[in-house]
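Subject: design request, 272 residues
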């Protein structure tokens, strides 16, 4: 059941996209979280609990945990789809609660299921690649975080850590480009996965500066959440999820009356 409410004072429509836009998306996300906190905080708590379970399961195998936590960021966007539906409802003057999120997850939308499986495969591939790289290259077993810091990150010569970061970036970049617009678009419209992914890549190509900045902002916020013993994720996950909806709206010029997305391009006169 949804209740009609007056739209909030902040709108994400018809704004030029430039390098400052990510900070505006964060402000809009914070507005959405404060306006309707329960669904967002439930998402954040769920992901924090999942992270704590990972820590417990791999507490003495940091060679595995390092890949698991970084792979977690690859899969996390599919778990934020409920947050997109909350922000969409709020933008259209409706209040959506946990019931709306559960309805989306129970809808059995094959597009979201397929996309989630693809993200899961990408995350699993990175976990296995990371674990194999660390165990085969490291001169000593990596069992604790201090082992990773001492024998991988702080070694004086170039090698394992740089390759580990480079491989992770090479995997994360196409996943980010494929999902940053595609996932909210799949929640918002009935377009097929292929069309949503193509739109996502076109958007990233049209706005390279802002999209790189947005990726960096997301990465820094997620790193801060992990450095707070995952407690920070309770707030930062919904903040980024809601902000991602507003990024989608700005980047596709979505109209609140519906999902009217046009393809942005250099001819639109955007500022990079």
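Subject: RE: design request

Done. Sequence follows.
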């Amino acid at each position: 059941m949804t209740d009609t409410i007056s739209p909030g004072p902040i709108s994400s429509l018809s704004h030029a996209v430039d390098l400052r836009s990510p900070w505006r998306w964060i402000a809009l996300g914070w507005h959405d979280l404060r306006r309707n906190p329960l669904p967002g905080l439930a998402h954040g708590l769920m992901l924090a609990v999942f992270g704590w379970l990972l820590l417990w399961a791999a507490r003495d195998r940091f060679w595995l945990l390092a890949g698991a936590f970084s792979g977690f960021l690859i899969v996390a966007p599919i778990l934020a789809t409920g947050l997109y539906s909350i922000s969409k409802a709020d933008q259209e003057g409706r209040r959506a609660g946990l019931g709306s999120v559960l309805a989306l997850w129970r809808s059995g939308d094959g597009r979201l299921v397929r996309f989630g499986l693809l993200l899961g495969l990408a995350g699993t591939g990175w976990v296995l690649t990371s674990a194999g790289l660390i165990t085969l290259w490291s001169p000593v077993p990596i069992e604790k975080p201090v082992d990773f810091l001492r024998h991988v990150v702080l070694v004086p010569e170039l090698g394992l850590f740089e390759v580990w970061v480079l491989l992770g970036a090479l995997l994360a970049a196409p996943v980010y480009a494929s999902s940053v617009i595609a996932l909210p678009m799949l929640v918002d419209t009935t377009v097929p996965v292929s069309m949503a992914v193509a739109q996502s890549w076109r958007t990233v190509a049209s706005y390279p500066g802002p999209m790189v900045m947005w990726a960096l902002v997301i990465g820094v916020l997620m790193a801060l959440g992990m450095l707070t013993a995952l407690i920070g994720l309770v707030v930062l996950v919904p903040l980024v999820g809601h902000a991602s909806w507003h990024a989608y709206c700005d980047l596709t010029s979505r109209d609140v009356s519906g999902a009217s997305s046009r393809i942005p391009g250099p001819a639109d006169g955007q500022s990079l």
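The beta strands are 3-4, 94-95.
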